Amino acid sequence: MVTLLLAIYVILILMHTFVMGRDLVAHKNDLGHGNWAVSGGIGFITDFLDTLGIGSFAPTAMLLDFTKQLGHDRLLPGTLNVAHAIPVLVEAFIFTTVVKVSPVTLFSLIIAATVGSFIGSKFVTKLPEKKVQFWMGVALIVTAVLMALRQLGMLDMLGAGNTATALTGIKLVIGVVINFILGALMTIGVGLYAPCMAMVYMLGLSPLVAFPVMMGSCAGLMPVASVNFVKEGDYARKVSLAITIGGIIGVIIAAKFVTGLNLDILTWIIIAVIVYTGFTYITKSRKPVAAVN
Description:
Layout: H1 2-26, H2 36-51, H3 57-67, H4 76-98, H5 103-120, H6 129-151, H7 169-185, H8 193-202, H9 210-219, H10 221-232, H11 237-259, H12 263-286
């Protein structure tokens, strides 16, 4: 199963490289707005953060706006997907090869999230986005508090430190159901990384296991979504290429950092990421819906 998954990642990397590369060659004399060094730096920073589990889309959007790299705001969605597709696939490939995790557990959770995102695009998008964001934010903060208390030894009922690399029986069923739901919620803007980290931890798995699960869950979605953006030219070509190159470097460096961390330190980093994401969701839920022209 792991070999099959790695083969799929390689195929997706090659597919995305071909689709994006063909478009860049066709427009080599007009790659558009942006600065190579600035955009490359943005890719390095944001995909480094993505490898830590913080996510890349929000920081990239903020930095692109701050540095005025995009000529038109309408290019932002396509740029985010096209630029970060290969770095996320590299993340998934690295963590799948270096982190010990049951192939059945990994494959089951990734398939669940993928199916969830497909179904979510048809049904979950009808849910009230603001309410979902608010309650997801609250749930993440509560979970982070429980994780912190457990780390401090104040919740013996939750057991000792996490070392498991596989889910079996009812825990596997719970993991599949939750990751299916998280995949579905991605379609209304609820990121999968932090909730997936929380789920993996609370089910007793090693904190490192979250990385191949959450990155594999997202890696298959972005290259496919990017095809239409590239086909329609709805992305910033120069910016996307620079972010991709900088992002790959950021991923490789960050992956060595993460996999070399003591698990206690890594758990506290994960707790901080979950708290940050929780408050981000609550803040989003409080903002008025932008008027659509």
